[in-house]
Amino acid sequence: MESTFITALQNIVSPEVLLVIFLSAVYGLFVGSIPGLTATMAVALLIPLTFYLDNLSAIAAIVTLEACSIFAGDIPTTLVRIPGTPSSAAYTDDAYSLTRRGLHETSLGVSLVFSVAGGLFGALVLILAAPQLAKIAFEFTTYEYFWLYVLGLSCAAIVSTGSRLKGALALMIGLMFATVGLSEVHSVPRFTFGFDELFTGINFIPAMIGLFGLSEVFRNTLTSKTDEETEKLKSALPVEVDKSWFKHLKPVFGGVLPQLWKRKFSWFRSSCIGSTIGMIPGAGADIAAWISYAVSKKCSRTPEEYGKGSLDAVGDATSANNSALAGAWIPALVLGIPGDSVTAIVIGVLLMKNITPGPGIFENPDQLVLVHGIYLTFIIANLLLIPLGFLAIRSGAQLVRIPRRILMPLILMFCVIGSYSINGSYFDVWVMLGMGLLGFVLEVFAIPLGPVVLGIILGGQLEQSFVQNLSKDDSILSFFNRPISAALGIFCIALWLVPLFMPLLRKKWSSPA
Q1: Which of 149, 243, 353, 368 has the fewest Cβ atoms within 10 Å of its own Cβ atom?
Q2: CB under 8 Å to 369, separation ≥6 — which residues?
Q3: Lowest-confidence segment of 266-270, 371-375, 415-419 by average pLDDT
Q4: Domain boundaries along the sequence of the chain
Q5: Could you tell me how far CA 237 lies from the centroid of its own chain?
Q6: 339 close to 330: Cβ distance less than 8 angstroms
Q7: What is the Cα–Cα distance from 75 to 406, expressed in whole angstroms?
Q8: Where would you find the membrane-spanning parts of this chain (predicted)?
Q9: Cβ(308)–Cβ(103) under 8 Å?
Q10: 134 — pLDDT class (breaks 50, 70, 90)
Q11: Residue 338 has pLDDT above 70, yes or no
């Protein structure tokens, strides 16, 4: 064990591998900061290059790219209200509200430091507990997956700004869109209206870009407060750009480290949530961010600030989604089951390199060197993210200086390019435009957008697990026939019912005997 770790360390610090890690970090930050270009897409574009890299360099490139692009997705989330990653949708309103108050550097500083801290925690979990934790995930059946999807969707609706009824309505809209096309459990196309492009369903990336990005363009274009908000934002920034970036360390990092120490228990809780959710196959950082956000709001002394510009919300959610990244590698390495879309690609790369993921990967000395190299890459990538992330923040922050009459067309251009580049389809552009109009209308009635996006993402998986469970046993009690599924099911039901009965209980308790 010790000899393989030393060998992995010697391999990882070689100039060639370090150069690959550095270039992958820059590439990940660049791609992640462009709305519509997700970490999965960046990894997919990198796959052809892995043919020409050795095993460790190829996997190190993917690990670094994923870690950096997830954080980079917070840059457009914070500055222009376009989630760079699906998990960013959990705290989009908080991050953007801070930007409108001139606190974009502080918000991004919290995202950076808590992302690195969460990523290192996830790496520690991967290193110390991979085989043991993977056994827990392996015990999950379709019943547990069903309740896990319900939990993630419920949290998205419950923690959204506004009433629970509006959150539930937004969730229903998202689930409705998820029923479009062919599902894995039905052979008949649904709600395609004669469009062949809808056979595969509605792609959530154009939908997400339209709901959050294009709706912002419509809102700024059609409301009369645009110029006033622009001047207010510009007045909160220095008149001239200081070329000495060292003077900007304080706005970015000044209050973050004290906040991390002050909220160390909240950070630990969020990182544990992220690592646990991440190691469950198919869950990923999206659910981790939403659940962590919900728990953070529930435990907060100031829950009314959530959705209106809470640094606590940003810190806890970013800790969870970054710790989930390493957690997703646990089932991928130990069981050969992808934890998320990126590790699904990783399994393909490993097989391409004649490496079969599974329990045997920890017994073969040569492959164990690769596993230890993955551990070290997670640590190096997260540490490298601190300086490179700061440079990305300083570069990206200049977006807020652009006048609205210039910024809005640029955002529209990124929306169109990001939507088209996914499949090279003009139909996705039309989907983005339609979702943009829908997002604008929903915001007029104060209906949250986050549950709509998550409903589109998880709706298909929820339906599939539900039908699979009914095919096993059509009794509703079968959903509670296992201890873990029963606990998850009761918790999900309590999330919705307890708040409904709490006013009645308070009234009963407060009434005189």
Answers
A1: 243
A2: 4, 7, 8, 11, 56
A3: 415-419
A4: 2-238+263-502
A5: 29
A6: yes
A7: 18
A8: 12-30, 108-133, 145-161, 168-186, 198-218, 328-352, 372-393, 405-423, 429-458, 479-502
A9: no
A10: low
A11: no
- Indicate if the pLDDT at residue 175 is higher than 80: yes
Tokens of 43: 């990894």
CA distance 176 to 433: 18
Scanning 300-425, the segments in alpha helix (DSSP H) are 311-327, 329-334, 341-352, 365-396, 404-423
**Residues ≥6 apart with Cβ < 8 Å to 45:** 31
Burial of 238 (0-12, 13-18, 19+ CB in 10 A): exposed
Between the alpha carbon of residue 54 and those of residues 17, 42, 184, the distances in Å are 9, 19, 36
Locate 52 and state its tokens.
């020409």
Per-residue 3-state assignment (H helix, E strand, C coil) for 427-441: HHHHHHHHHHHHHHH
Give the span between the Cα atoms of 354 and 366, in whole angstroms.
Answer: 12
SS3 assignment, position 447: coil
pLDDT digit string, tens, across residues 76-92: 888 877 777 777 778 88
CA distance linking residue 181 with residue 147, whole number of Å = 24
Instruction: Tell me what pLDDT residue 161 has.
Output: 56
Per residue in 136-146, pLDDT (tens digit) is 656 777 888 78
Report helix, strand or coil for 512. coil
Q: Give residue 235's pLDDT band: very low, low, confident or very high (50, 70, 90).
A: very low
Q: Say whether pLDDT at 247 is over 70.
A: no
Cα(189)–Cα(203) distance, integer angstroms: 16
pTM of the model: 0.67
Query: CA-CA distances (angstroms) from residue 446 to 68, 229, 272, 512?
Result: 33, 19, 33, 38
Max CA pair span of the chain: 79
